Amino acid sequence: MNYMKRAIQSLWAKKGRSIIMIAVFSAILIFVLAGLTIRSGADLATTNAKKSVGATVTLSTNREAMFKQSDSEDENSRPDPGSFERTPVNLSDAKKIAKLSNVKSYSFEASTSADKSSGIEPISSDSDASNDSTENTEESSDEQMAGFGGGGAPGGMSQGDFQIKGVSESSSYSEFSAGTASLVEGEAITSEDEGTNNVLIEQSLAEANDLSVGDTFKIKDTDDKDVEVTIKGIYKTSDSGDSMGAQFNFMNPSNTIFSSYTMVNTLTGSEGKTIDSAVYNLEDPKNMDSFVKQANKLIDTDTFSLETNDQMYQQMLQPLNNVSSFAKNIVILVAAAGVIILTLIIMLSIRERKYEIGVLLSLGESRMKVISQFFVEIFICMIFALGIAAASGNVVGNAVGNQLLSQQTTSQNAEGQEANAAGNNGGPGGQGGQGQMPGGGNGGPRGGGQMGNNPFTQTEEIQELNISVKPMEILSLAGIGLGISLFSIVLSSAGILRLNPKKILIS
Question: Are 259 and 189 in contact (CB under 8 A)?
C-alpha cells in the first residue's frame, strides 16, 4: 500500500489524535504568524515615521567657537557674555544648503524688536499703571536685563515695544504648526512676501488699536526711522506669556508681529542679505550625517555650525525597535518550542504504533517510507493548522502587538517625564531655564533648539500598529511550518531507525 494513502487512513482512523495534533500545530503557527505580522507592522510604522517626522538641522552662529576664540585671545580675563554679538548667517549660503538633496522643507528665521511710531500702541502688561510706574518699570527692567549680558535685550536685540519675528513662511513656524497660534483673518506670510512690509498681528493687538486687514501703521527701525507696514493677516495666540512679559512689552505674546525675514533685515539695516538661522527638515533621518557633511563644505565652520536634531525620530523609533525585536524573538522561541513539542508528540506516537511499524518493516517496507508516512501525517495536520492560523493570526497579532507597543510607549514616556523633571529641577529657579528670553542660543525665537520649538509640525507618537496578514507572511509561515515538521521528523526518526521488526513481533 502506498505510504501516502496509509498516512491519510491513519489520520482518519485516529481522529482524536489528529485533532490534538492540528490544535497543537495551530497554536504554534498562530503565535509564529503573530510575531511575523507584529514585526511587519513595526517596520511599516518605522518607515512611515521616517517620512513624517524626518530630522532637523539648524544653521546658526557657532557660539562655542566664539567663546573658545575669546578665551584664546585673553586667557587672563573672563569674557563678558554681553560682549558677544551674533554673526548673521549669509542668506546665499543658507539657500545653497536648501538646494541639497534630502531637504524636505526649510525655514529662514530672523528676529528683532521695534518701537512704536504712529497708528498703533502696544498692549501693556499692566494697563492700569501710571506713567511714573511705567518709567520705574523700565528702569528696573534695564537693571534686570544687565544680568543677561550687559544691558539691552538678549540675543542682540534692543528693548522695544514689539517683537518682530521674521520667517520664510508663517505656517511652518512652531507657534502655527503646533497650534499655539492660528490665522483668523487675512492671509499668512509666504515666500511671496519677501521684500515687502506685510505683517501679521495678534488679534488682541488689532482690536485694541481698531486695526483690520489692509490697514497700515508705522514702527521705528534701529536708526529710529519710521517704517510703514501693512497688515496682511490677523492671528490669535493661546500663549499667555510668562513673568518676564510683565516687565517688557516686547515679551508680551500679543505684541509679537510676524513678517518676512527680509523686513527684519530692513529694520536692522542688513539689506536683506542675512538671517539669524535656518532650519532644514530632512526627508530621511538616516541620511542626516551625509547631509551635514555636504552642508559643512558650503559654510565657514569656524563661524557657523550645523546642529542636528533627530531626537523626535529616535524617540518614536525606540518603542518600535523594541516591539520589532520582541516579535523576532517570539518567532524564534515559538518555532523552537514547536519543534520540541511536535518531536515529543511524534515520539509518543511511534511508541504507541510500534507493532504497526514492526509489521510494515517485516513485510519489506523500507524505514524511509515509514518515516515518510509520519511526515505526510504531520504535513497534512500542518495544512489544516496553516488555514486556522491565517484566519485568526490577524486578531492575535493586533492584540499582542498593540499591547506591546502600549507598554513600550508608556515606559518611554515615564522615563522621559523623569528626565524632564530632573532637568527642570536642576535649572534656574527650578524651572529648567523656562525664563529664557527671545534669542535663546541662536539669537532667534526658538531658544536653544529644543524639541518643543521645532519650526516644523511635530508628528504625534505612534499609538497603534497597523497589523494585517499579507500573502508574503503566509508564505513565510508555511516555510516555517514546513521546517518545524522536517526538524520534528528528523529528531524523532531515530526511534524508527533503531526498531527491530523481529523483536517487535515476538514481544
Answer: yes
At residue 36, the pLDDT reads 86
Tell me how far apart the alpha carbons of residues 239 and 228 are, in angstroms, rounded to a whole number.
Answer: 27
Q: Are strands 55-61 and 256-260 parallel, antiparallel or unpaired?
A: unpaired
What would the grid cell of residue 420 be?
Answer: 524632564
- In total, the chain counts a number of residues equal to 507
Alpha helices in 147-287 (DSSP H): 174-177, 203-208, 261-268
Instruction: Collapse the DSSP code of 162 into the 3-class scheme (helix H, G, I; strand E, B; otherwise coil) and give the result.
Output: strand
The CA distances from residue 475 to 94, 325, 396, 429, 469, in Å, are: 50, 21, 18, 61, 11
Handedness of CA 252, 255, 257, 261 (dihedral sign): negative
Selection from 231, 107, 127 nearest residue 176 by Cα: 107
Instruction: Give the span between the Cα atoms of 433 and 427, in whole angstroms.
Output: 5
Model-wide pTM > 0.85: no
Hey, what's the cell of 471? Answer: 500573502
Do 386 and 29 meet the contact criterion of CB atoms below 8 Å apart? Answer: yes
E strands, 176-268, in order: 181-186, 198-202, 216-220, 226-237, 256-260
C-alpha span between 86 and 77 (Å, rounded): 21
**Taking the CA atoms of the chain, what radius of gyration do you get in angstroms?**
35
* DSSP 3-state of 118: strand
Instruction: Return the DSSP state at 128.
Output: T
DSSP string, 344-410: HHHHHHHHHTHHHHHHHHHTT--HHHHHHHHHHHHHHHHHHHHHHHHHHHHHHHHHHHHHHHHHHHH
Which residues are registered as beta bridge partners of 274? Answer: 90
Q: Closest Cα partner for 275 from 436, 165, 181, 201?
A: 165
Residues 149 and 265: their CA atoms lie apart, in Å, by 23
- Phi and psi torsions of 372, nearest 5°: -65, -35
| Cβ atoms within 10 Å, residue 171 | 13
Can you read off the three cell numbers belonging to residue 406? 502600549
- The domain segmentation of the chain, as residue ranges, is 3-51+316-420+460-506, 55-309
- Quick: pLDDT tens for 73-123: 555 555 444 444 557 788 888 888 988 888 888 888 888 889 988 999 998
Amino acid identity, position 33: L
Q: Report the DSSP beta bridge partners of residue 256.
A: 163
CB 162 within 8 A of CB 250: yes
419 class by beta-carbon count within 10 Å (0-12 exposed, 13-18 middle, 19+ buried): exposed
Calculate the alpha carbon distances from 147 to 65, 82, 160, 434, 443 in Å.
23, 9, 18, 16, 17
Residue 84 pLDDT: 43
